[in-house]
TrEMBL record:
It comes from Brachybacterium nesterenkovii. Keywords: ATP-binding, Ligase, Nucleotide-binding, Protein biosynthesis, Transferase. Residues 139-167 are annotated as: Disordered. Signal peptide: none annotated. This is Glutamyl-tRNA(Gln) amidotransferase subunit A. It comes from the Bacteria. Its EC number is 6.3.5.7. It catalyses: L-glutamyl-tRNA(Gln) + L-glutamine + ATP + H2O = L-glutaminyl-tRNA(Gln) + L-glutamate + ADP + phosphate + H(+). GO terms for biological process: translation. Heterotrimer of A, B and C subunits. The keyword Transferase applies. InterPro entries: Amidase (IPR000120), Amidase_CS (IPR020556), Amidase_dom (IPR023631), AS_sf (IPR036928), GatA (IPR004412). Residues 32-477 form the Amidase domain. The lineage of its organism: Bacteria, Bacillati, Actinomycetota, Actinomycetes, Micrococcales. One of its GO terms (cellular component) is glutamyl-tRNA(Gln) amidotransferase complex.
Amino acid sequence: MNSPASGSADLTRLSAAAMAAAMADGSASAEEIARAHLARIADVDGELNAFLHVSEDDALATARDVDARRAAGEELHPLAGVPVAVKDVVVTAGMPTTAGSRILEGWIPPYDATLVERLRAARMPILGKTNMDEFAMGSSTETSAYGPTRNPWDTDRIPGGSGGGSSAAVAAFEAPLAIGTDTGGSIRQPGAVTGTVGMKPTYGSVSRYGLIAMASSLDQAGPVTRTVEDAALLHEVIGGHDVRDSTSLDGGFASFTEAARLRDVKGLRIGVIEELEGEGFAPEVRARFTESLALLEQAGAEIVRVSCPNFRYALGAYYLIMPSEASSNLAKFDGMRFGLRVVPEDHPTAESVMKATRGQGFGAEVKRRILLGTYALSAGYYDAYYGSAQKVRTLVQRDFAAAFESVDVMASPTAPTVAFRVGEKVDDPMAMYMNDIATIPANLAGTPGISIPSGLAEDGLPAGIQFLAPAQADDRLYRVGGALEALLEDSWGGPFLDRAPELKGAGK
């Protein structure tokens, strides 16, 4: 890789940590870095549709402020001047926030989410808002009302979901860092199929204040990056207690960055989850998983097998709990208070306005999940469906607790397959839902999970390996992830995304 001074293309390919170092030693300015990324977005996002809004003026103003403060000798946050993109389910004052839905088209929030406040406090230029499945409901970023996002590895393929915009932007070098949200795998599954690092923190460790809620007991914001160290650095910016979030945790976390830089797994016990490695997982995905475990074992980790028998019921439980909470959370989008309002021409009433607005404003997948959730919560069915699903959730949590009595972390492939083709599964909801079979258990339990690239599988496309840790032991994931990343990069001869094909770009 060339030095940062050799051109804007090189600036976009630096890690966030390297960008911070380049600004600290004067070899690049924050404005140069911001402009390089804005130019990259202008060049390739027409192919990808990763961004729904680009905040050029805001990003450049923040970058210039960082340069001025640095020139004046002010001590700045280590990531000051490093750009970041934000998933469009996170509210941002002065920028549109749509959650990928027509029902919020054009809405500009009057306030920032807590995590956005923390990005701004660190003086990180916000490049814009990234595309997503509507209200985070999907595994392919095809349900967005603003068109699908494409995978930078193959633009005929999906980038995962619901946070495919954030992962595609990072994989395509449009942004070094991005924010995603993970309700059932929406950070980790896109990470696996785009060759990026996706981290779902412990539930409650990153504030949900200002996230447009889908399922309040499952939603969690987290980092999307190209390296494990970068994920740790961003996690430390956005994490921490928030009095405005009643589920926010207060303290109890070791240093993520120190763990990511340790790169030592000697004595670490890694449990391979028997229920998440066999049937349904593509052979080459399993092969890359097995090779990654072998590298960790050679580096001194102990690999053991663990059983989590109730994980096989997690998918069914999730698709009762999540739609139930979503049907309640989305009731606020009624055509009365904010967002889209459709008024029928003949005898408009509150009921007809509500019906017309929700009918036109919500897409098919959102309607499907609202119907499922409303049914599960209805009189006579609550105990049989929602209540039973919560009991399964408890059993999944007990499986985690039992497994972590004998291992430090657990491992599985992140997603069953590589990225599938755009349109391939859009008419088969069950096939789409199965993409999250390995990621959902962590959301039900509130435990942290990370996905990192494990290599190339079918058709030369990325596969991912997932690690899971006990609640508030996020540092273990950065430790094992950082160590495996270093081992794999040694075998590949460089960063994983250096192997990605170049996008055509404007005029090429």
